[in-house]
Amino acid sequence: MSRTRSAAGSTGLHRRSLLAVTGAVALSAGAGYALRPGDVAAAAATGAGSEEAAPASPRQTPPAPPAPYTRGTTVAGTAAPRGGGPGYRRLADGPGWDRVVRGELAAARPGRAGRRTALAAFVQLTDLHLIDAQHPLRLEYLRPADVHAWRPQEALTVQGAVALVERINALRGAPVTGSPLDFAMTTGDNTDNNCRSELEWFLTVMSGGRITPNTGDPRHYEGVQNSGLKQYWQPDSAVRDADKRLGFPHLDGFLAAAVREVNSPGLDLPWYSTVGNHDSMPLGCYASHGDPRLTELAVGGRKLMEVPAAEARRLRQTIKKATDPRGVRYGDFLRAHARAARPVTPDEKRAPFTPAEYLRAHLDPAYRGPGPVGHGYSAANLDAGTQYYSFRVAGDVLGISLDTTDPGGHYTGSLGTAQLRWLGRTLRDNRDSHVIVFSHHTSTSMNNTHRDPARPGERRHDGEEVTALLGRYGNVVAWVNGHIHRNAITPHTGSGGSFWEISTASHVDFPQLARIVELVDNKDGTLSLLTTLVESAAPARTDFADLSQTGLAALYRELSLNAPGARTDLAGAARDRNTELVLRKR
Fold first, then answer.
1. Which of 232, 300, 549, 585 has the fewest Cβ atoms within 10 Å of its own Cβ atom?
2. How far is CA 504 from CA 142, 160, 246, 517, in A?
3. Are the C-beta atoms of 131 and 160 separated by less than 8 Å?
């Protein structure tokens, strides 16, 4: 039975309650370190869209207050830099971003806003990268070769993620239609280093509870930020480090505050999970079945914090070129520098988790929150050894979550033949439903050819093949993903239909965004996907004296703005942010 909602959001049964009870539909599938976003091929450039301009006003008038459903979104306002000069930049409340109508796939017809009915509305979170900043396997020492190898904000990822959850909970409805939000989907890289501490933090942030973002010595921080090394920001120290020379502040008590207990309310709507390369592999690039020394080193009592710049460059190139997908050379590298590593407190919570452990953690009742059980994953996934599934969003809308990580190693993605065939069957068997596909990798970052060691005879398929498959079915309306840490929206036209690829920026690099997507029927032979970006609930302005949970979340965003080498284009162009994406109804 098909069921739609009016623009006012009326419905016979609250969708959140329905999804929490029903969970995912039955499966039919046999059931890095990412260097920096710019190192992976970016999503293809799109043609310029047309922007709906407001009619000219005959006189200057104060701006109208934001509509109730746009409060807290980037339509109403954004956190923007104050001034454009060199040095450390402060944030303040800035203007909102306009909504751009894009008609590359279908013409936007007049009067559609008064006709449309809402079919689904959800929030996408992506690339949270919850970071155990003291983990012994982290690659901070590559900073001389790549300033993106370590970010000054990394100790505050938990506080920042909780503030994003708070923002989503405060939204009064979908920004355009006012409909209730049906669910949230995380599209991978929920953790940063495939370690158990980060997985526990992620699940608690999403489902609610208390988190102590600290491993090793429970009494204090042990890592690069109290090392005295000048290549890292030393917030509590008088050391004149490289970041302080750029204007970073001296903050007494920062590290003690960063590892203090944090409380998350958890999302108040059902949430689903998609896996990313950082969730599947140590450092986001080394195969989980790789060199066993990496596990030993992860839980051990030594942490390498500094290497000569020439050696940092060589290791970076090895990772980037994927010549060591199992991490054997990396294990040799760490062993060779064992005497230079500093003592830290060993901790078993830093051990990597297997794909099966990732599934079991999602199925743990302690992390159920508002549901569904498993957050998309099921016992069928455990039995089959898969991490992909489908779920019913509404009577006429289906969600599909893919696993685009490559078990053979490296940070780019691909699909195995078994999953590609399952995807085709699922699309074919649900021709009467609108389909929204979720994955971590984008179409242009799926070029990995490393074979799955568990299925050595199975071919891997790249983004072009996946795009072609989705384009054969007119019921596919969107492919929603992350990985590139940048907003980018790309139209695709295939042999059987057209769809929009919606890639969203991360929540670890500025501007730290999530995205609301509304699917509506315009009742004129077209559908629209309405995308609206949101920031965290933390205030734009920071107070260096405020080291509370909220104050640290605000500082997290400002530090990300100022991270050395931070890119200025991750928010994307206007056509990649708040949009209306029109396509033909099939």
1. 585
2. 27, 17, 29, 11
3. no
